[in-house]
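Entry for L54SNA5H complex. Fields follow.
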Amino acid sequence: MTEKIQRILSDSKGARWTALFIVAFTMMTGYFITDVMSPLEVLLDKPVAAGGLGWTSDDYGFFAGSYGLINVFLLMLFFGGIILDKMGIRFTGIMACGLMVIGVFIKYYGVTGDFGDSRFTLSFVNFSLPMSAAVASLGFAIFGVGCEICGITVSKIITKWFTGHELALAMGIQVALARLGTAGAMMGALPFAKAFGGKVGAPVLLGLVLLVIGFLSFIVYTVMDKKLDKSVEEAKGEKEFEKEKETLDEETDDDFHFRDLKYIFSNPGFWCICLLCLLFYSGVFPFLKFATKLMIANYGVSEDMAGSIPSLIPFGTLLLTPLFGSLYDRIGKGATLMLIGSAMLAAVHFIFAIHILPYGWFAVIIMIILGVAFSLVPSAMWPSVPKIIPMKLLGSAYAIIFYIQNIGLALVPMFIGKVNGADPSYTTSMSIFCGFGVAAVVISLLLIAVDKKKHYGLQDANIKK
Ligand SMILES: NCCCC[C@H](NC(=O)[C@@H](N)CCCCN)C(=O)O
């Protein structure tokens, strides 16, 4: 009997949680590097003679957006998903980590190399950047490919180990640990750079070292992955588990066929999740980029304190994302959680748009509500994908969702920046963000209806009793 229960490695609680923490650590180091330069703008825009890099805010904006450039314009995320489904977790994960390390190495060279006054210029499109920004952006774009492909690989790994167990809790913990990487970068990068004489390269080098450790931990994970596959093979060989064999057959990485992609594209539930992801994340990540200035302009918060109010959001999600994930595992109602989170997003932006109660304490309350919304939707949305899409297509499915999301993450901030220039009261931009929330509510309602019709099980608990 014991032999039956413990027939594959993922049935061991210790093994699957160890696997989770190993790959979540890799992802955390990736998120650290993603945001390590965000608090360093004050050092980047100093003149070269004063120890800075002489970047303008436009140069910085281009650098920040370069994360998604190769992913979006060269369709790298789309190909990344196919590579994952075709070549498997171990190959793709190592490739992704390798790309992240190469990317950060180039970025480090960009911010520490001596380029003098040289510039990178494309005269036919009237484009010019300091050479340091151009090199750093190239590195960040390569890193972005690795980081997003690593993200879809980790999602597939978690699904592989946790299906039928604590899937949403595991995904929630992974996202929470990733947010810890973001929070660590936001809080630690500037003091760390200042401790090294204001050198931008110091925190980037720290991130590079952490990333290499993250890469090594992924290599350790591949050993576990091999063992899991071996235990699955052994279970397949046992006659009495004929029924399970059919399920396991469906789960092998080798079974991917391009023609199967039409299953993804023709799936209405998948498109609802894609749209929800695009709308919801467009209302959160780009908002965070403008939130500090909003606090100063509309809520009278001092410059020193203004950044700490939006930082309540990633901190709040640390605890709440696993909590809501565990709720989804035990009682289900995933689509309802997404609806509630979307409604909260719309309400928060509506309140920001109409400028009532212009006090710092009120902004804190609103930001906490946004933090709850930012925990509700991701904790229910990501674990819902495996309920709609079979395992062998999961890499491609996550990649397409990430791809569509990246378009919003790249274009919305550029658009909102222009809108704020024309209307510095933030009424227009907050109304646009509110519009994303309202549209997310509509899509969530549609998802609930589609789920009822197609029986995806989005409202069911993940843990099989
Ligand atoms: N199991 C999927 C987890 C996704 C977490 C999600 N990340 C993303 O959506 C990334 N594509 C983009 C992250 C960009 C910010 N650095 C998240 O909520 O972080």
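NOTE: Confidence is low (pLDDT under 50) at residues 1-5, 248-253.
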